[in-house]
Prior knowledge:
This protein is α+β, with helices and mostly antiparallel strands. The protein folds into 2 domains: 5-207 and 323-410, 3-Layer(aba) Sandwich (Aminopeptidase), CATH 3.40.630.10; 209-321, Alpha-Beta Plaits, CATH 3.30.70. Helices cover 36% and strands 24% of the residues. It contains 12 helices and 17 strands. The strands form 4 sheets. Strands 3, 4, 5, 6, 7, 8, 15, 16 and 17 form a 9-stranded mixed β-sheet that branches. Helix 1 (5-19) crosses helix 3 (90-105). The mean pLDDT is 96.
Amino acid sequence: MTVDPQRVIRDLKELRALTCDEHGAQRVAWTDTWLQARDWFTNKLAGLPVEDHLDAAGNRWVTLAGGSPQALILGSHLDSVPNGGWLDGCLGVLAALEVLRAFAREGTPPVTIRLVDWADEEGARFGRSLLGSSAFAGTHTIDADRGRLDRDGIRLEDALRRCGVEIDRFPEAEAERAHAAAYLELHIEQGPVLESLNLPMGVVLGTKGVERHAITFRGQEAHSGSTPMNQRQDALAAAAKLALEIRTIARRHSDAVCTMGSVKTFPGIVTAVVGRCECTLDQRDLDPQVLAQMYAEARAASQRFATEEGCTVEWSRIWGIEPVPFHPALIALAGDLHCLPSGPLHDAAEVARADIPTAMLFVQSLKGISHNKIEDTREEHLALAIERYAQLAARTAEWITCRTGLLARRN
């Protein structure tokens, strides 16, 4: 199947010129700039023999009917974080469009080809990532999400309504799963692994599970000048010990990561020993047993450090998701590529959670940087990734055809 990678790169640059400023991409979901990007994408569909609609969660579906209703889904997301990069998400959407064009040029494909632009993958405005794809997968949390507020006090429910989406209708998006036979996504790596290995791209084993907790150390506020060091109950000291210990915990496991990303102290003044320290812990790994072990180790360490500093410690779970492995047959179809797990979450994980065979390709990110205006990938690597993505799509369409035929014969 012949694709034109340079057209995809031109489209990406055109989208960058339209929706980026000097600080980076501004396609935050449910904003005017995001809607402008979607209108721009509509124009790219001109002349294609496709059906185009939004589902009840705001996901965009473009369908090229095939010889079978069994569908190969290709996609990613157009939305970005504030001041984001020019490739995150939109590479996958525009590469999927180019593959759909190639299928259309060859006539009726053997299976139906569907392109999806997931709504609000980033969760940048309201803090709820994978919103549209979770509605598709049936893992949405409507009651917990409807009242989420952005920094201006606008409710998620109201922002969706302004864009024609009613949060109470989210379950209707599950209808799009009918006949879904496989899902493929191309994405930038957003990390330094492929560059460190001098490899242009890789295939993803799955997305790491996440355990995210809030931890509160409680000590005793006291005057910083009059309280001897050996008589302090310093909550920050206990938290600082944990912040260092989680690095040791993660390094005991090859691909695991642990991050203390937020630390708040109270009363938070220079003349007082910290009486309360609130921090957050994010732990990720592809193996659920490793994830559980790291959590147990971190919790035990926090208690040990609290005791050492004369403090108490409390934990509360913020959020979590189990590790999501991708489909081994589709990973094999990607060919001789380096295999690596994904630390960041992706819409592909929600699709896989819906028991739809899923695979992802990563293309190298320069300096491993993403969610930043300097995010970049060499154009020759982009071109190679687009071509390999098209090859994987063609092979997957054949795999669906063979698999469907085998199942039919068995029945």
